Automatic annotation (TrEMBL):
The keyword Signal is assigned to this record: yes
Keywords: Plasmid, Signal, Transport
Superkingdom of the source species: Archaea
Residues covered by the Fe/B12 periplasmic-binding domain: 119-332
Cell location: Cell envelope
InterPro entries named in the record: ABC_transptr_periplasmic_BD, Bact_iron-sidero_bind, TAT_signal
Protein name stated in the entry: Fe/B12 periplasmic-binding domain-containing protein
Pfam families according to UniProt: Peripla_BP_2
């Protein structure tokens, strides 16, 4: 790794300057705000024989004899939690493993000594019952309600796997506070990303790693909250999937849930009309009507995404070239919405710089390659500290 990632500097860093400059405001802004600090009771209940249980909706109380070793996942927020706890390479299944392996490794490049390999894993969006038996996992980090919602699975299938292979432990519908299937509604609760991570950490008996990462996360949010410009100075923004700029999937920025956990704390002003729901397809004329100051390109950090090509296509488009974000060169890449804790840290920093460069430091012009090498004194969190927590060296 080059010198920009060693976590040391002789002078004050940007996060130091921001932290001390806004300490009083931060104390006021964060008082009692559990969503920002991500603190909750993890529901860990230990018995004298070494077994223990962890409680989370919709499963309720789940018992373990020992920390799981073989880890099944479906969605990447759960796989990302295993990764954050140093267990990323113990994951045996996930949705679109080749795609997400390449995306996650855009970020691990900036974490000294951290490695991750999800290539060749079973793609588990709709796992067959036979494959679940074959994988013989010690835990299924997946929401049984969302598995039950698949056409291929009924409640008896979910219960059979729980009772004969390994327990389910996951929560999906906290992504944007969607309604779970009716038969699960009375036992469902919504969690923030970091509340859920705390409970997953308890499953693996990795509470200390969780606490260390949660402190870094809380400090980052404190820095952001203390230095946010007033609303009148905040840019308008739209998040969209831009593989086809004439038919874009658009996402609202203030939707509750962990899909916006890297954007919502920064309070950009959403400009999509009330008639547009998150995930709707819009055309260029609709985007021009909103005319955001900033356009976030979802998945723009993936190595298969051509950010230079997207910007060029917008400049060459008869309507797109009239967009304020295009005229002012404020079309930026984003990573993943189903983010785990580590991507959440990077994406909070990235989005802060993209929205407020005068406050949090400029985001480098990005066309390709891994997450940019931000100079040490411009980083909003300590890469070396995060890497050492993941590897167990801290």
């Amino acid at each position: 790794m080059n010198g920009s990632n060693n976590g040391t500097t002789d002078g004050p860093t940007r996060r130091d300057a921001l932290k001390y400059g806004g300490a009083i405001a931060a104390g006021t802004a964060l008082a009692g705000c559990s969503e920002l600090v991500g603190q909750s009771e993890n529901g860990d209940d230990r018995s004298g024989d070494g077994s223990y249980s962890v409680t989370m909706a919709p499963m309720g109380e789940v018992s373990f004899d020992s920390p799981p070793e073989r880890i099944f996942t479906r969605l990447t927020h759960h796989a990302g939690m295993a990764f954050a706890l140093g267990r990323g390479n113990d994951v045996n299944a996930m949705h679109a493993p080749e795609y997400y392996d390449r995306l996650w490794n855009q970020f691990t490049e900036r974490l000294p000594g951290v490695t991750l390999d999800w290539t060749g894993l079973y793609s588990s969006w709709d796992p067959s019952k036979e494959k679940l038996y074959d994988l013989d996992s010690d835990v299924h980090l997946a929401d049984p309600a969302s598995v039950n919602a698949l056409d291929s699975k009924d409640a008896s299938d979910v219960e059979e796997i729980r009772d004969t292979v390994a327990p389910w432990f996951g929560n999906k519908f906290s992504d944007r506070h969607d309604e779970p299937p009716a038969e699960w509604a009375d036992r469902y609760e919504y969690y923030t990303l970091w509340e859920m991570f705390e409970k997953v950490a308890a499953v693996f008996r990795e509470e200390e790693r969780y606490e260390a990462l949660a402190e870094i996360h809380a400090n980052l949010l404190e820095t952001i909250e203390a230095n946010l410009p007033p609303r009148r100075e905040r840019p308008t923004a739209v998040l969209a999937g831009m593989s086809d700029i004439d038919s874009m999937y658009a996402y609202t920025l203030d939707t509750p849930g962990f899909l916006t956990a890297h954007v919502r704390p920064l309070s950009p002003i959403g400009v999509l009309g009330d008639d547009i729901s998150s995930g709707d397809v819009i055309d260029m004329e609709t985007l021009l009507e909103a005319d955001p100051d900033v356009i976030f390109s979802l998945g723009g950090l993936h190595p298969e995404t051509d950010m230079a090509g997207i910007r060029s296509s917008l400049r060459d488009h008869a309507v797109g070239q009239r967009l304020s974000a295009v005229e002012n060169e404020r079309v930026y890449p984003q990573g993943a919405r189903y983010q785990g804790p580590i991507l959440n840290l990077f994406q909070l920093e990235m989005t802060a710089k993209q929205l407020y460069p005068d406050v949090f430091g400029e985001w480098p012009t990005y066309t390709e390659g891994p997450y940019p090498a931000i100079p040490d004194d411009e980083q909003l969190f300590d890469r070396q500290a995060v890497a050492e927590i993941i590897t167990g060296d801290r």
